[in-house]
């Protein structure tokens, strides 16, 4: 019933760096700032899709999933409640901040806040990328994908697949990596989870451009500006995305790529891959030196 990753929000003491990093490196467009200085960024005609709020430390604030209608929102809320998840109504201030018609939120079993909304505000014909580029693959495929760190992958599967209805695309098992990839629209995955015992958090956000040149130009810009590249250019085994990974000024990684496959549920068969990459994606010294994700410890049995 979830249709797409509609928006995502972080907080960071370095939020103001996104005024230049967002448009000039990533190609996102600045939207109106929040009253508290929040930097809001656009990837298409949606009002905004990525928000970086002021904060004392890097944190994931919320992951925003879209549903089609108010009725779908009520039905999914009921389903969560039936499975013992407490669902909260979004406040008028939160709903205005997210630029949606209605919103509820809940914490997943690992303490990560998810929001469900309908009626995202769109402004057709108004998106202009922050630098010369061909734009992003969004629309019905949503903003991109998010990868969570979870302490128990089976418990995560029970919740995200069993309760929320995400559909398994495939798995990558390359010890110590144990990851599952889920779709909710044609994008190969809108959500992935990777297991790390005792920990939960956010690892990376993927943005998909319309051309390989957009990715190569971003790579050059990162090198020129000293933005830490954590994985070199490479191509994934499962979604066939050609991408590189950078460490963003808000403490989470960004996969910046192009050419991901789409999933058709009628003839899709989930595979298991023993490797993440066909070629490239080599870890740099930044990969070793910088935090792998925004993480918090999770008590056993939570
Ligand atoms: Fe990714």
How would you describe the overall organization of this protein?
This protein starts with a strand and ends in a 5-residue tail after the last strand. The model has no long low-confidence stretch (mean pLDDT 97). It folds into two domains: 115 residues, Roll (2,3-Dihydroxybiphenyl 1,2-Dioxygenase, domain 1); 159 residues, 2,3-Dihydroxybiphenyl 1,2-Dioxygenase, domain 1, CATH 3.10.180. It contains six helices and 19 strands. It has 302 residues and is α+β, with helices and mostly antiparallel strands. It binds fe (ii) ion. The site of fe (ii) ion has 5 residues, from strand 9 and strand 13.
Rg value: 18 Å
Report the sheet-strand fraction: 35-45%
Structure class: alpha+beta
**What value does the average pLDDT take?**
97
Instruction: Supply the number of helical segments.
Output: 6
Low-confidence stretches: none
Give me the CATH superfamily of the largest domain.
2,3-Dihydroxybiphenyl 1,2-Dioxygenase, domain 1
| N-to-C order of helices and strands | EHEEEEHEHEEEHEEEEHEEEEEHE
CATH-defined architecture of the largest domain: Roll
Termini distance? 26 Å
The global form is globular
Query: Main β-sheet, in a few words?
Result: 11 strands, mixed
| CATH third-level topology of the largest domain | 2,3-Dihydroxybiphenyl 1,2-Dioxygenase, domain 1
Please report the total strand number as a whole number: 19
In CATH's first tier, which class of the largest domain applies? Alpha Beta
Q: Estimate nothing, just give the exact number of structural domains.
A: 2
| Percent helix | 10-25%
Bound molecules: fe (ii) ion
